[in-house]
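$ run holo --ligand "2,5-dideoxy-2,5-imino-D-mannitol" --emit C-alpha cells
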Amino acid sequence: SIVDPLLRTGYHFQPRKNWINDPNAPLYYKGWYHIFYQYNPKGAVWGNIVWGHSVSRDLINWVALKPALEPSIPSDRYGCWSGSATTMPDGTPAIMYTGVNRPDVDYQVQNVAYPRNTSDPLLREWVKPSHNPIIVPGGGVNATQFRDPTTAWRAAGGHWRLLIGSVSGSARGVAYVYRSRDFRRWTRARRPLHSAAATGMWECPDFYPVEAAGRREGLDTSVPGGGRPRVKYVLKNSLDLRRYDYYTVGAYDRRAERYVPDDPAGDERHLRYDYGNFYASKTFYDPAKRRRILWGWANESDTSADDVAKGWAGIQAIPRTVWLDPSGKQLLQWPIEEVEALRGRSVTLKGRVIKPGQHLEVTGLQTAQADVEVSFEVPSLAGAERLDDPALAGDAQRLCGARGAAVEGGVGPFGLWVLASADRRERTAVFFRVFRAAAAGSDSKPVVLMCSDPTKSSLNPNLYQPTFAGFVDTDISNGKISLRTLIDRSVVESFGAGGKTCILSRVYPSLAFGKNARLYVFNSGKADVKVSRLTAWEMRKPRMNGA
Ligand code: DQQ
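-- output --
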C-alpha cells in the first residue's frame, strides 16, 4: 500500500525529504524566525540524528539551510538530540542540546553551541566550544534517561536556571534544575523543580510564564517574578510511555526553586495540549509580536514501509499562539494569525439547520487543503444522552471509542466530515457530542466531548487509525460551540471552542484526495443543529523548504 504523493502536506512544515521529529530551539533573531528539528539526513526512518534548520520571515514560508548541528565532537558523536535556545543578555542566542556519546544510546550529556557570526541573521554556522560537554549526569541521576534541556531563565542576581528531563526509579518523571553563573559551569539543585509518580520519563520539558486572567500577550521566559503577582507558570512534559504532551498550570516559588500545580490533582488529570498526534513540543517567546508560540511534532500513522516509499516522514503542526484561559485552569491555543495569509477562495453558509440524520455538502471550492471555521448552535439540549457509566464519564478517549461518529446520539454527534469521498465511504469525522452530567445536581454543566474519528478515513487497511478525543471545558448551556479545522491533505488539525481542546490526526485517504476530497457538515444526533455560520477557505501553498 503506497500512500499517494498527493497526500504530502501543503502548508505544514516539512523539509524536502526524509525523517523529522521534535522541533528544537525555536527562536526569533534580527527579523527572522528559526526552527531547528530532529532530522535524519539519510532516510525516512529515525536515526543519524542532526539538527535540520530552516528560517522564515513569517513562520509560514520557509527556506531550508544546512543542518545547524551534526555530530562532530566526542560528546555528540552518536547524535545531536533535542534542546532549546536561550537569548543571552547581549541578544545572542545560545543552544543547549543533548549529545549521545556512546554508540548504544546509553549515556546522555548536554552540550552548548553559539553562532559563529552574530551579524548573520540566518545564524548559519554554529560553534561548539571546547569546554563541552557542560553537563554530565551526576550521582543518582539516570544517565540513560537524561535529556532535552529547556530554555534557561534568569534568577536572582542574573544567575541562570534550566531544566533537564529524566526519570527516577522506574516511573517517576522528573525535571531537574541546573544553576549557573556563566552558562558554562552548571550544578544541579538538590531537589528537582517538580516530579510526578507513574508518568515515566519526562522528555522535552518546557517551563514558562503566562499572564494570568486571559491576556493573550506572551511573556519572555526570563520575566522578572517580582512585582508581577499575576504571572502563572506552565510546566509541560512529553510522556515517552504514552506519547503525548501534558501540562499543568501553577506557581513557581523562586526562592525554593519549586513548581507547584494549582490543582493538586493536576498531574493525574493529564491536561493535554492536543488530544491527538502531537508530541515533543516546545514554546518560545516571540518578541516581535509579543506572544508565546507553540511548535509540536506530528508523526505519520501509515507504516514505516510506506514512509520509506514516500521518502518522508513527520511534520510540524501549525505553530499555535498559547495563552491562559480566563478561568486560569487551562491554556487556549490558536493557529498563528499569519496562517490566514494563505487563505484563498472561500465559501460561506449562514443559518442552515441540519436535521437529525442529515448532512450538507460545502461545495464551490477544493477542500483537500483548506481552513474551515464553523459556529454551531443547538436549539435544545433537552435530548442530551446521559453519561451514567463512570468508566466512560472520566475518559474521553474511551467514551469516543464507544460512541464514535457512527453511533447515533441525542445532541450530536455533529460536526464535519473532512477529506470525504463523494460516496462518503471515506471520511474523517471531527465532531462534538453533548452529554447530561450523571446523577449530579440539576445545575451541573452538560459535558461536551470533542472527537476526531479517522476509522473511516481510508480504504487502505494498513494504517493506524486511532480515535482521539478530549472533553471541552465550556459552558454550552446557550447551545453555542465553535470549531476550526485546518485540513492539509494528510493532516486534520482541529481547535474546539476557540482553542480549548485541540486534536491533530494524520489520515491517508485512498479516494478522497486532490480534487476528490469533499467537505460536509453532518448531524447524527436526534436534535436539530444549526450552522450559524461556516466559512471554508482554500489554502495556498507557501514556500516550503524548496519542496
Ligand atoms: N526525541 C529526541 C530526544 C527526545 C525524543 C531524539 C522525544 O532528545 O527525548 O530524537 O521525541
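-- notes --
The chain has a mean pLDDT of 95.
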